[in-house]
Request: fold
Amino acid sequence: MINKAVDYKILNTVPVKGHLYPKIDTDNIRQRIFSEDELERILSASSLRLSRIIIMAQGTGMRQNEIVQLNCDSVDFEWGFVSLKGTQTKAGKSRLVKLLPDVIEMLRQIPRKQNTRRVFVSSTGRPLPYWTTYCHDTWHKALLQAGVSDACFHDLRHEAISRMFEKGLNVPEVASISGHKTASQLFRYVQVNAGL
Reply:
C-alpha cells in the first residue's frame, strides 16, 4: 500500500527510513469490454454529470483523474484534441488525446461555470479534485441499477484502447494517445476482439 501511495503521488517517498517494501507481482490484467446494451443501460442509470464522464472515458481512454481534472483551456474544439500536461498524467509526460465527434458534441453541451476552469464539476458546481468517493459511489450505483456486474470504471479505458486498434490505429499512434511508454504496457489493455 505504501508503494502504491508513492506510485499515485499521495506520498512523496516511503516514510520509513532504511526499509524497502518489496512490490508484489499480481496478474491484474482485465479482459472486460462492455456490450452496447450494457453501456446504454449504464448511461441510462447515470446522472447527467456521470454520463458525461463515462462518454469521455469510453471515447478517449483517458484515466479517471485526467478526466475529472480536465480544464476548459485544454480542450481544442477546432482541431479535436485534449492537451494534457505532464503534471496531469500518471507517466508525468504531456500528450494529446484525439476526440471523437460524439465526445466533442458532448463537451460542447456542458455549460461553463464562472467560478472554475474545470470541464467536469460536482452537482454544486465545484471542481472535482480527483476521482472522489462521490464519483466512485455514483458509478457503482449506476452499475447496480443497470444490472451490470464484474465491471470497474477503468474497464472503459481498456475498451477505448481496444476500439482504437479496431479503427485501424497502429501501436505508436495508440500509445501516444493513451500515454503508455511501452508496447507491453499497451497490450495489457487490448481485448481479444481488437484483432491484434
